[in-house]
């Protein structure tokens, strides 16, 4: 179907060639008030439709520890028992989300803070793995995001700010990796918009040498990704981030970039920014 077609009488019209940025910020940026301020100012300065997704794993770990709850991560995901779910609900859905929304409002951006349960925007299923009980952790199914619902919000002038919480439709909140939420939103909304997915974190992008900010790799395709993994140049949190990024690229997202939150302003100036992913060289 052509992107300008109307889907049905009651649904929104597909958004021709409008651009949409889906930008995710990680815990290290959120944890640093100066970096967060700069990032949000640049985010507000970007033209066009925007959605912000935030993590906050670092803050959740700190606050859980202050409350005497030990943080346990397996394969980059937090084991989320009922006590931990309470903490992440307060930290992601409350503390971090509302602070970000208030700061964006200060910059004149009409941000609206959301979990996946609000507006039934993002449903997930409890993660089931035979060997590990992840507890209240959600995986997002294909088709569990209705892009038209989110599009209505954007068209009404709001900037959605999603935290790392989803729901199962049966009354249960689920803790869901923020990189995965950003990728799933980008894939879903690419049916309506020319979507660019950007992962912002504290480094310049994917680095050849993690300790050398000058060793930025400008472009990675799927073959190079396999090589970098085999050489252990890419590891830990970067692995799920890149897996999510390549899923997005192969499912219709126009561009995926991984870069430093401080450099986001370069995008507006059309200057090179971060590491760009591509399917083939
Ligand atoms: N080649 C690499 N280049 C840059 N970062 C890397 C690389 N390999 C592993 N990493 C690690 O990945 C981390 C980013 O993943 P993560 O902590 O999950 O991000 P976020 O802050 O978005 O949650 C970096 O802080 C870094 O420690
Ligand atoms: C299930 C799961 O692991 N959820 C993540 C959600 C937050 C997140 O993704 O935060 P960062 O992007 O800052 O890492 C967690 O609780 O750590």
TrEMBL record:
The record lists the catalysed reaction(s) as: N-acetyl-L-glutamate + ATP = N-acetyl-L-glutamyl 5-phosphate + ADP
Under SUPFAM superfamilies, the record lists: Carbamate kinase-like (SSF53633)
Can the keyword Cell membrane be found in this entry's annotation? no
Q: What's this protein's function?
A: Catalyzes the ATP-dependent phosphorylation of N-acetyl-L-glutamate.
What's the protein here called? Answer: Acetylglutamate kinase
All copies of the Aspartate/glutamate/uridylate kinase domain together span 21-258
Mark the transmembrane ranges.
none
Write down the position(s) of the site called Transition state stabilizer: 24, 241
List keywords of the entry alphabetically: Amino-acid biosynthesis, Arginine biosynthesis, ATP-binding, Cytoplasm, Kinase, Nucleotide-binding, Transferase
| Pathway assigned to this chain's UniProt record | Amino-acid biosynthesis; L-arginine biosynthesis; N(2)-acetyl-L-ornithine from L-glutamate: step 2/4
Provide the residue positions that the database annotates as binding substrate: 56-57, 78, 175
Q: Which family does it belong to?
A: Belongs to the acetylglutamate kinase family. ArgB subfamily.
Q: Its Enzyme Commission number?
A: 2.7.2.8
């Amino acid at each position: 179907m052509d992107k300008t077609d109307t889907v049905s009488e009651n649904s929104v019209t597909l958004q021709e060639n409008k651009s949409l940025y889906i930008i995710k910020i990680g815990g290290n940026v959120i944890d640093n008030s100066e970096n967060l301020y700069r990032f949000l100012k640049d985010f507000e300065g970007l033209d066009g439709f925007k959605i912000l997704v935030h993590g906050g794993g670092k803050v959740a770990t700190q606050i859980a520890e202050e409350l005497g709850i030990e943080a346990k991560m397996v394969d980059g995901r937090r084991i989320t028992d009922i006590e931990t779910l309470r903490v992440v609900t307060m930290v992601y859905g409350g503390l971090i989300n509302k602070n970000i929304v208030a700061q964006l409002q200060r910059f004149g951006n009409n941000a609206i803070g959301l979990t996946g349960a609000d507006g039934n925007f993002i449903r997930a299923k409890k993660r089931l793995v035979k060997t590990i009980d992840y507890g209240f952790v959600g995986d997002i199914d294909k088709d569990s995001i209705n892009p038209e619902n989110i599009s209505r919000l954007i068209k009404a002038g709001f900037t959605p700010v999603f935290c790392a919480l989803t729901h199962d439709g049966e009354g249960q909140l689920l803790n869901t990796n923020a990189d995965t939420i950003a990728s799933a939103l980008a894939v879903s909304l690419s049916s309506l918009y020319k979507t660019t997915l950007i992962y912002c974190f504290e480094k310049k992008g994917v680095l050849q040498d993690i300790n050398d900010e000058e060793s930025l790799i400008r472009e990675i395709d799927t073959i190079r990704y396999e090589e970098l993994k085999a050489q252990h140049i890419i590891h830990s949190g970067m692995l799920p981030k890149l897996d999510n990024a390549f899923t997005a690229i192969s499912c219709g997202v126009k561009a995926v970039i991984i870069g430093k939150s401080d450099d986001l302003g370069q995008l507006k100036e059309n200057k090179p920014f971060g590491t760009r992913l591509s399917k083939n060289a």
